[in-house]
From TrEMBL:
Name of the encoding gene: argS
Alphabetical UniProt keywords: Aminoacyl-tRNA synthetase, ATP-binding, Cytoplasm, Ligase, Nucleotide-binding, Protein biosynthesis
Gene3D superfamilies named in the record: Arginyl tRNA synthetase N-terminal domain, HUPs, Isoleucyl-tRNA Synthetase, Domain 1
Main location: cytoplasm
Residues spanned by motif 'HIGH' region: 122-132
Pfam families: Arg_tRNA_synt_N, DALR_1, tRNA-synt_1d
Name used for this protein in its record: Arginine--tRNA ligase
MF-aspect GO terms: arginine-tRNA ligase activity; ATP binding
Amino acid sequence: MNFKKGLAEVLYQALEGELASQNIEQLIEKPKNQDHGDLAFPCFSLAKLKRKAPNLIAQELSEKIQSPTFEKVEVVGAYLNVFLNKKLVAEHIINSIITEKGKYGAHDFGQGGNVTIDMSSPNIAKPFSMGHLRSTVIGNAIALIVEKCGYKPIKINHLGDWGTQFGKLISAYKRWGDEEKVKANPIKELLALYIKFHAEAETNPALEDEGRGWFKKLEDGDQEAHSLWQWFRDESLKEFSRIYQLMNVEFDSYAGEAFYNDKMDRVVQILEEKQLLVESDQAQVVELTEEELPPCLIKKSDGATLYATRDLAAAIYRKENYDFAQSLYVVGHEQSLHFKQLIAVLNKAGFEWADKMVHIPFGMMLKDGKKMSTRKGKVVLLEEVLNESITMARYNIEEKNPNLADKDGVAKQVGVGAVIFHDLKNNRMNDIEFSLEEMLRFEGETGPYVQYTFARASSILRKAGWKAESAPASVYQTTWENEWKVISMLMEFSSAIKRACENYDPSQIAKYIVDLAQVFNKYYAEVKVLEQSEEQSARLALVYSVTVVLKEGLRLLGIEAPEEM
């Protein structure tokens, strides 16, 4: 039952259809202060329509609206404040959660539509750094959130597995490489070769031509070049998959840049047929003057296709193969212009579905206030961070709960969860300062704090021997007065999911579960839940409801919830 929607329908009847119920629902607010009710309807927007003062409209409406769901209705200035019937609402929420369990809070507006999500996309033969963390965890959380809203997510890891750098890498390997060393530690060795190539090229410029020559061979299908490239790719993917496994992230496709090599001529052909290609400085471009954008470069003067050509081919391929309802690109904000051009070119070419493509930008991961850079050696390796976080979590557990059964398993859940939550609790457009100490705190707005609250609530249920299966169907012996703040938060879960989906913003869920954890911990400090009383079954049902919602909220962020900590 959506109580906001319920109030909107009652108001719609009282207003005799003067305002659409959908518009009314959008105007309904949740008062910041609970003393002002559970829902509030401001009457300002009706003043012009009814040619009356908003406070008079509020007064008139208060006399017309009635529902068993409302305990009372108060008028404060131009606001109509509605207090919900605590017993009726609380029991409805609690019973919904007990019945629906992890499905609670779901929506179906996605109607099974496919959503492709271009995310993570590390470069082959380069280390997986903290810089890649953001695209990976934001993309993964968005996939889980859109699924909760009725869509079918398709996660695509658009690997950086093509380009001149592979010619340079082949050249470096041919000159200085050692097969055994590469097999033993692929990323580290390949990166060292790549760095050595650049250092040597400074005094020996002919190396650059050699590198380009090898890439030309690779493009022309030379067997040796191709088998070395394939080997570098396979070894890199083995390394990456270990990191993805640590974070419980899976993909539906690893089709990277190389996958689109044979699909770009068609793009050029389409643009030629639509007479969109024009020559500029001997290169082929699509003019975007009307769109107030710089021209989009499609083909270099030497005939080579570019990054944009490849992304156009990828967009067309994804539409034809997945028939997406939405196509999302979780890529840093520095690529914003590129995606504006991409969508503009597709629109010009008559692809109406281009409007379903959305660039989801995000800020940078900073270290000491500066951007992390592979070239300058200022990179922080993600796997090292995850492992260090797990080690620190293990140390905390050893200190606080030495008798815990599965210390290693819980340390992994807490350590990895801390890193993910630290990213997702921030609005994605904010830059994030990397800090392991900050991530692993057990208090404040952190992953471990939410996980600990879940474990604590689970422990209460274990001590009481309470099971959802044996919970009463309804009628609890309590007024729900003390529990109302927690109930109000549980009621908000569905709205937080909807906001997170519509704004592609996982921080909505992260903030929500922190708020729920705080409200619950305050309640638990004030109310003796385990004390034998006629209210005990209601209180335990509430504790169970909190565990369900915290666990599901963490899951939507790609984080596990340990039952003990």
